[in-house]
Amino acid sequence: MSSETWSLSVIKRSIDLDYSRGPVVGLSDEYVDGFEDPKHAHDRIQLLYACTGVMSVIADNTAIVLPPQRALWIPAGVEHSVSCRGPVSLRTLYIEPYAAPRDPVCHVVEVSSFLRALILEISQLDQTRGLKNRDRAVMDLILMELSTAPKIPHMAPLPDDPKLLRVCDLIVKVPADRRSLDDLARIAGMSRRSFTRRFKQETGMSLSLWRQQIRLQEALSMLLTGTPVNIAARNVGYESTSAFTEIFYRTFGVSPGRYVS
């Protein structure tokens, strides 16, 4: 199918989308604080994006926090669940796999100001009228931008073991939780030694590093939505801003302030 026949719908429920209109359809919706979308999958690629608000996502057995500067590329058929941290303005796309070839695994995409503007422009299109040349050009541009958008590598794989997953769910929901390794092993109903060995086998990292990843994701989502560094550090469990800044610098190569700017 050529770009000349492409079309776009913007409707407030993915189940109502008319996927026969073309390889890309858009959905615009508003979610309230605490809204949860349980585990589900789509027949198309989804670019999960919110222009305002923060989402927590479990996709492809990985925990991800999405602030407005990031989107999640979810391949067709991959199960995922979403919860909203405060009100969320969703602007998301569903794409035919052949229209936007990319890695067949979930990954976080950096959303530039240009890509963001293109997504918002598509979300405002009137679905009752025919597609104009300008609309097709916007779609061509967005697919081009997605083909080169930088990936963000900082994700936290989830274990398959339900006992370990119980602990991970606790940390994802409350990143500032300071329970010790022994406490968390007891919650999992395992010895400390078994817990640490099994956790590394299933996630590829130690519990401390995994928890650090979750805390950094959460802190980054706060920083990118205007939260001061000292408050973000405290909210994710760091006792001092300097300790948080040091870990942030080791992970991202720049200070929190430089990263945000």
Give an overview in words:
With 261 residues, the protein is an alpha+beta fold. It folds into two domains: 3-152, Sandwich (Jelly Rolls), CATH 2.60.120.810; 158-260, Orthogonal Bundle (Arc Repressor Mutant, subunit A). 38% of the residues lie in helices and 24% in strands. It has nine helices and eleven strands. It has helices at residues 113-123, 133-148, 162-173, 181-187, 192-203, 207-223, 229-235, 241-252, 256-260; strands spanning 10-11, 24-31, 36-40, 45-48, 50-59, 62-66, 70-74, 80-95, 107-110, 151-152, 156-157. Strands 1, 2, 3, 4, 5, 6, 7, 8, 9, 10 and 11 form an eleven-stranded mixed beta sheet that branches. Helix 1 runs antiparallel to helix 2 (133-148), helix 4 crosses helix 5 and helix 6 (207-223) packs antiparallel against helix 7 (229-235). It is globular. The model is unreliable at 1-11 (pLDDT under 50).
Work out the number of β strands.
11
What would you call the structural class? alpha+beta
What number of structural domains do the residues give? 2
Level-2 CATH architecture of the largest domain: Sandwich
Q: How many helix segments?
A: 9
Rg from C-alpha positions?
20 Å
On the 0-100 scale, what is the average pLDDT? Answer: 84
- Which series of helices and strands comes N to C? EEEEEEEEEHHEEHHHHHHH
Q: In CATH's first tier, which class of the largest domain applies?
A: Mainly Beta
Are there runs of 5+ residues with pLDDT below 50, and where? 1-11
Write down the CATH topology of the largest domain.
Jelly Rolls
Shape assignment: globular
